[in-house]
Amino acid sequence: MNLRALTRGDAAVAGGAVLLFIASFLPYRTVDCGGSPYCPSSLNAWSTELFPVLPSIYLLGILAAVLILVQRFQGPAAATRQVLGLRLDQWGVGFAVAALWTSVWSLGGGPNSNAFGHGFGAWLGFISLIVLAGAAAASPLVPALKAPLTTDRPAAPFPGGYPVPGQPGHPGAPGAPGQYGYPAQGHDPAFGGQPAAGGYGYPGAGQPAQPGQPQDAAAPQPTPAPAVQQPQPTAPAADFQPFWFAVPAPRPLAPKDNPAGAPVGELVPGTWYLAVEQRGAALVAQLQDGTQGVLADTTGIQRG
Known about the structure:
This protein is an alpha+beta fold. Helix content is about 25%, strand content about 15%.
């Protein structure tokens, strides 16, 4: 059962079915008994005297909603399953329209007498069927009704770009050089480092030795090691702005540093993901747990 597959149209169908069930217990027909204690003042849809109002309007509408939701819960795997040539949701749409059509004729009929009238349950059931049948028929056509009911958007990352206390690079990080009692590398000989050039009693490069200090003329001068340049990651486009998006079908997420490697995750429909970087036609997407990877196939994505 995939709850993320539910759409706003499915929520409207479920809401209409709940209202329809409640309306079945409310007065469907009112009777003016003239004060007689032996005459019922109202009848609901469950009364046998109003048969077949209950099965042809209320139960048929509820059955339509159940078929539509069952088809949606099964997900894409049930797209090819058919019963007598139709899918369950198609049967549900037909049942909903039939129940609405029966309700219209029921409201227009009945005994031709001023003593009888339609109660609140009849009108509430009619309105519920309008919502149910309308949402069922319009969900595949209206984009607002096709939108997922739940988004599951992850929390947006901290936009400032400053490290949080306790993270590497922050003054409060354990073992940070030169912070909170930790000597900077190459400053304190007691911790195995080299004396700082130009410090107290240590001549800097190119400076004469201080008086009273021995100087070994034959000692070779150390050659500074060449600076090793670290490879810089490819910077994102300057005009790129992070945005939310959804995929129309399940798609794999390749590793960020090795797009040809094994997938690190999968993007599924009905969930919003954050695009944090663009690499040509591909996107670097972030999952709910913070994992980032490369989405190579960006065709048909829906921007949020």
